[in-house]
Amino acid sequence: MAFNGMANQVQSLLRGQQEMIRAVSHELRTPVARIRFAVQMVEDMTDQPAIRRQLQGIDADIAELDELVDEILTYARLDSETFNGAELETALVECRAMAERVIDTLSPLHEELTLRLAPGPEIELLAEPRYLQRALQNLVGNACRHGKSQVVIQLWDEPNLVRIDVEDDGPGIPPEARADIFKPFARLDDSRARSSGGLRVRAIDRAENHGRAWWQRYH
After folding, report:
1. What span, in angstroms and rounded, lies between the C-alpha atoms of 157 and 148?
2. Does residue 153 surpass a pLDDT of 90?
3. Quick one: which of 40, 43, 140, 181 has the fewest CB in 10 Å?
4. What pLDDT is stored for residue 201 in this prediction?
């Protein structure tokens, strides 16, 4: 009875935490939208280059906050589905087309880098399309933050699994810190993260010049 009582209490606490995270994340969207609207209004009212540069910096910070809220909501939703035993809705995903969509999304944001998909076979994978694309986009986004000149995506069709490599030519992750990249919202280096705007959101940045992810293929 004592163990059952503790288990029920833990479940209740976890459920309350998930609900709070979702509620807070949703509530953050309204003031963020108001701040963005106000910044755009002020930007339209001034032609002074120094002020416009500052406003553009604020707008970039707002975009980063928006992205973080979105990631928190996604994390809470995944955590809730896992906690409640819900099954993800899967579908066949064309991996090369998915990788090209990610490149098309991120290339305009990183014009100083070359983002490309390495030649390879067409690969289909049974997965949850939105979360798989989000995982790949997080990998590529982190690689873009630390890459010097290029980011390359490569697909591998291996027995019983599909492997996606995201490779950049940045400084990489120290061996002693590689376990930390799997922790949600962990920062590997506060100073580097602040200078580069890097968010570690469930994505592998790089290890020995490779960020790798595996997804199990179901037949």
Report:
1. 28
2. yes
3. 40
4. 33
